[in-house]
What we know:
By secondary structure, this protein is α/β, with parallel strands linked by helices.
Amino acid sequence: MSSDEGAGRPLVAILSGAGISTDSGIPDYRGPSGLWRRDPDAEKLVTYDFYMNDPDIRRRSWLMRRDSAALTARPNRAHEAIVALERAGVPVRVITQNVDGLHQAAGLPDRKVLELHGSARSVLCTRCGARTATEEALARVAAGEDDPACRECGGILKTATVMFGQSLDPEVLAQAVTIARASDVFVAVGSSLQVQPAASLAGMAAEHGARLIIVNAEPTPYDDVASEVIREPIGEALPALLDGLAR
Ligand SMILES: [Zn+2]
């Protein structure tokens, strides 16, 4: 943590999951009525081996991204409430399981957001590592390239997301662990806390003395070690909670 911000004020870490973005129109694919429960084949589109080895999966994956709401979605009240907390001078770090970039779109500086599962807003070449904007790749798809290749080297392009079968970036994960352990308040919002290792951050924070607050519609495995569990809708509950923390 840099020493130039909120000297002496408690560090608030926020772990966000899919539930924070549903009000922005982004469906929770893993949720009870999520796409992956209804269409198991859909999971192949975001599974690394299938994606790398099957051009047809890549074509379908690009079409899915073209049709997805993630790139046009706007931040909602919950994202904005986190920005308001940061602007009130409270040291804030967000650790997110989401790839939609909505925390930054709401105005949170990049350096205060750790994207555990990467970002759907960028595209990476799997051969040379060149990074470009997803919009650019989707424009090529719209223009008729159904599986656009890297313009530098011809390699396979994929979004800069962590697909099934890929490991999390160890550096990003290490930073998340440091933040969880250093936090005074750890708010887990819109996450079922069932996907590891992200979920274990909540336990780590509690073990290191943080006040753990869980905001989620459904029960989580960490409810028992939480100081507070809030079941109200995130769009109302989170602004109220963070407003209290800003005082
Ligand atoms: Zn390349």
